[in-house]
Amino acid sequence: MISKILNFLNENGITITILFAFIGFIISILKVLQYWNLRTKELKVKRFKIYHDYLIRNLVQPDTNDGIMKLDRQIAIIYELKNFPEYYDVSIRILKGLKKHWKKDKNLDCRIFEEIDLSIKSMEKNFISRFLNKKIFI
Predict the structure, then answer these.
(1) CA separation for the pair 59, 94 (Å, rounded)
(2) 15: how many CB neighbours lie within 10 A of its CB?
(3) Selection from 129, 125, 119 nearest residue 81 by Cα
């Protein structure tokens, strides 16, 4: 019995070695994919928190100290919204709604409306280019 096993291993040693190497390679790839998937989920959660808990909240919520909105901070936040393409659709709707609402306040600096317009234009342009790129390469 042992001689048969040794004979089989001797005759098929290269095949068995290649088979085990291939299995090891597949296991390594699966572990990398599992790690990548976990990192992708963590990144999505972090980006969600940054977008919602920081950017959007700080864009529309007054400071707790004095209750006054800081214009330059809001302009910077509006600019930063362009770095979140996964939220372009809702960002455009939020910015358009804020612009309509804020236009009623005659005391607001026009710089914020300029930044809203520039950001919306950039997001809409990027949305179209992303859409066209998907259609071309699919």
Answers:
(1) 10
(2) 9
(3) 119
The letter for the amino acid at 50 is I
Give the C-alpha separation, 57 to 132, whole Å.
32
Determine whether 61 is exposed, middle or buried from the number of CB atoms within 10 Å of its CB (0-12, 13-18, 19+). Answer: exposed
Cα(79)–Cα(114) distance, rounded to whole angstroms? 11
DSSP class of 68: -
Give φ, ψ of 87 to 5 degrees. Answer: -115, 15
Q: Report CA-CA distances (Å) from 25 to 18, 19, 30.
A: 10, 10, 9
Alpha helices per DSSP H over the chain:
2-49, 57-60, 71-80, 88-102, 110-137
pLDDT grade, residue 4 (50/70/90)?
A: confident
- pTM passes above 0.85: no
In the numeric block, the tokens 């302009």 are attached to 75
